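User: Structure please.
Assistant: Input sequence and predicted structure:
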Amino acid sequence: MAVNSDFLKEKLAYSKKYIERLRRIIKISEEEFLDDFSLQLQSERIFEVISQLMLDICTHIIAHSSETPPSTYSDCMKKLVDVGVLGEDETNNFINIIKMRNLLVHQYGKVNLEILFASLKILDSDFSKFKEKILSWLENQK
């Protein structure tokens, strides 16, 4: 069974409105961010949605490959290296996004807002790279 490229492209397209809002948030000062609970909540949700899109894409690709199912979400990103979607050098960046997502979603402890704010900037940059890698890989599958 082949990967559903339309499904993957729809997932990536869905991110657009979240990325647009993310980029508005990361333009403000850290001080303003730390003083605005509403922005903090928006940021957590944006981080959660974008990172979940990454996981949905990852699990779809791995499910349609000969790879064994991943045992963790971080493992899913590693398996994208094995199937030729990602390079090993960039995988740690994506794994760190997943780890931050897990912190936010599962509320393992109090969220350090300074780290969240810095992570939003990283998410913006790294999600763009992830998106490029997925689209390039899809193009090569034709």
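DSSP finds seven helices and no strands in the chain.
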